[in-house]
Design a protein that fits this description.
The complex is a heterodimer of chains A (280) and B (169).
Chain A: H1 7-27, H2 32-52, H3 59-102, E1 107-115, E2 125-127, E3 140-143, E4 146-154, E5 159-163, E6 170-175, E7 181-185, E8 196-199, E9 212-215, E10 227-236, E11 243-248, E12 258-264, H4 270-279
Antiparallel strand pairs in A: 1-2, 1-12, 2-5, 3-4, 3-12, 4-5, 6-7, 6-9, 7-8, 8-11, 9-10, 10-11
Chain B: H1 4-25, H2 41-51, H3 54-72, H4 78-96, H5 102-126, H6 133-165
Classes of the chains: A alpha+beta (280), B mainly alpha (169).
């Protein structure tokens, strides 16, 4: 009896008995073990069998076909990327073409926004064109939706743009409907709402909501008739009660990604030329 | 004495500064929180200065300052000078007189970041006569200060890790 008290012997004995029982059950037409195992592995076999299913082609043929398909897929991907690039460029060029077509006197230089640094106030940004592309300080920056700002500093390869949301920008402007004149200048009160102001207007000016504000061209810094935006509100200064209009630009200045710099236009620097004449 | 790890560490700081600059300057990349985006290069320069001697600290302070100033215009200016000076002093203090700990690094970060951003506002907004200074400060600068300070905590651990793992004994 001491022999049967050993643990290993007990396990071996039980295993042998279980195998014998299963053999007897199988022989009697009741394969419990194989049914259980097949039930558990059926799903796995279905997947592996379908994957390993032999087709009409040999292994080598499949390898070469796979290589050819991979190459074709890579070529198509490249073509697709090119297509998207061309599509984007085409859309951009159409915008520039429209600007140029509408204003034959404009010399334009397209630029892309490359930097919106955290230290810059009033949503100023940098673009990827500089003096090497003919850009100079004070050049107006626009999109097809109107005035965006001006070049406040420039180096050989990039330029900083001060936007119309900044108080640093002061542009002569007028109400297209009433011809009331004034100055467009940014105001910290409205910067976050992507709005600017039309200030220094006459107390009796008939500016009202919905009017379109454009540049007047006076001063020779900005060409005339550049759209600044639409009047969205009429307000009075809290200090001197002067009337001013809140103007909403048609472009989202905070998110703009492509712009055009006007490197030259008709009557650019007109004041300078007039004073030179007077001097002479 | 072999300075292999020191060279690698200095190189790593350079890469870190470059990456932070790209992160800070790329349009629509860093999320704006309550009208403010962080000035990552300020805490980067400060946290490097806690671990390095005064001269390398100053060098990295100047580098970060130059990049910050380039964000505003094309000339070196306010941040270059201020960060160069501040980082030199920090490098000197922490090399000879103070031990770097999370607590004092955080305190210095908070005071210096806030001070620099407020001074910048004073010189370039208030003294420049731009309108609604109080409103603009509340709407943009407060969040910028807090955001910058919070990023400084992360950068402290990054630079501490860099310093410890790339140290020549």
């Amino acid at each position: 009896m001491e022999f049967f008290s050993d643990k290993k012997v007990k396990i071996i004995s039980i295993t042998v008995i279980a195998v014998i029982v299963l053999m007897i059950l199988g022989a009697a037409g009741n394969p419990v073990l194989s049914s259980g195992v097949n039930f558990l592995t059926k799903g796995l076999f279905q997947v592996s069998a379908s994957a390993a299913k032999e087709g009409d082609k040999t292994y080598d043929e499949l390898i070469s076909e796979n290589k050819a398909l991979k190459k074709e897929a890579a070529d198509l991907r490249t073509q697709l990327v090119d297509y998207y690039d061309l599509k984007e460029e085409n859309a951009r060029l159409w915008k520039y073409y429209k600007i140029k077509k509408d204003n034959a006197d404009y010399e334009i230089m397209p630029g892309a926004v490359i930097n919106r640094d955290s230290s810059q106030d009033f949503y100023s940004f940098s673009i990827d064109v500089g003096t090497s592309s003919g850009v100079s300080v004070s050049d107006p920056v626009i999109t097809e939706n109107g005035l965006i700002g001006f070049i406040s500093s420039v180096n050989a390869v990039s330029s900083k743009v001060t936007t119309i949301l900044s108080p640093d920008l002061q542009a002569g402007a007028l109400d297209k409907r009433t011809k009331d004149s004034g100055v467009v200048a940014g105001n910290a009160l409205y910067t976050d709402e992507n709005k600017t102001t039309f200030t220094k207007i006459d107390a009796n000016a008939e500016v009202k909501k919905g009017d379109i504000i454009t540049t007047s061209g006076i001063g020779g810094i900005y060409p005339e008739n550049l759209i600044v935006g639409k009047v969205s509100d009429i307000k009075y200064d809290k200090y001197d009660a002067a009337k001013y209009a809140v103007v909403t630009p048609y472009e989202n200045i905070k998110k703009v990604t492509d712009v055009v710099v006007l490197t030259d236009f008709k009557n650019k620097g007109e004041i300078k030329r007039i004073s030179e004449k007077e001097d002479n | 004495m072999d300075k292999k790890f020191t060279v690698v560490r200095y190189f790593a700081y350079g890469i870190e500064i470059l990456l932070l600059y790209i992160l800070q300057a790329t349009p629509n990349l860093m999320p704006e929180v309550f009208g403010g985006k962080p000035l990552l290069l300020i805490p980067a320069a400060l946290t490097i200065a806690y671990f390095e001697p005064e001269l390398p600290a100053m060098f990295y302070g100047i580098s970060c300052g130059v990049l910050l100033d380039f964000g505003y215009g094309d000339n070196v200016g306010f941040y270059t000078i201020m960060l160069g000076a501040v980082c030199f002093v920090l490098g000197w203090i922490f090399s000879d007189y103070m031990v770097v700990s999370f607590l004092n690094a955080t305190a210095f970060n908070a005071i210096i970041s806030t001070g620099l951003i407020c001074l910048y506002f004073l010189f370039f907004y208030l003294f420049a006569g731009k309108n609604e200074p109080g409103l603009y400060f509340l709407a943009h600068y407060i969040s910028r200060i807090i955001y910058t300070f919070l990023c400084g905590i992360i950068l402290y651990f990054i630079n501490k890790g860099l310093f410890r793992s790339l140290l020549d004994y």
